[in-house]
Amino acid sequence: QVQLVESGGGLVQAGGSLRLSCTASGRAFRSYSVGWFRQALGKEREFVAAITWSGSTYYADSVKGRFTISKDNAKNTGYLQMSSLKPEDTAVYYCAAQSNGQYYSPLNWGYWGQGAQVTVSS
Questions:
Q1: In this structure, how many other beta carbons lie within 10 angstroms of the beta carbon of residue 19?
Q2: For residue range 67-85, what is the model confidence (pLDDT) as tens digits?
Q3: Residue 40 pLDDT exceeds 80
Q4: Residue 108 DSSP SS3
Q5: Which of 122, 90, 114 is nearest to 82 (CA)?
Q6: CB-based contacts of 83, cutoff 8 Å, min separation 6
Q7: Contact 17, 118 (CB under 8 A)
Q8: What is the DSSP string of 35-98?
Q9: CA-to-CA distance for 11 and 17, rounded, in angstroms?
Q10: Has residue 55 got a pLDDT over 90?
Q11: Cα(42)–Cα(75) distance, rounded to whole angstroms?
Q12: For residue 1, what pLDDT band results from cuts at 50, 70 and 90?
């Protein structure tokens, strides 16, 4: 069983930056892929970014060039660095771990964090 704990959300002005962290329990973290999804009020959960166990990265078109996903196996922690934030980035952000290789659907991830609110004001 893997538990994921997120931190780093908050309120930021448009154009600002935030970094989300996702710390995992368990020794197998280095073998896991890590993903980030977000869910805005009244909308479905959508893919943001993923990083495989080998370091390959994938991004939604809406965040490409602004967000960077990374993973520190020594700290059992995944990160999502968000820059040039826009009001439309406002959502609850969820980290996920252990995908079956189909990164874009939330149905294909085994473990989830509790979510972190990110609010971007205009």
A1: 14
A2: 999 999 999 999 999 999 9
A3: yes
A4: helix
A5: 90
A6: 17, 66, 67, 68
A7: no
A8: EEEEE-TTS--EEEEEE-TT--EEE-TTTTTTEEEEEEGGGTEEEEEE-S--GGG-EEEEEEEE
A9: 10
A10: yes
A11: 34
A12: confident
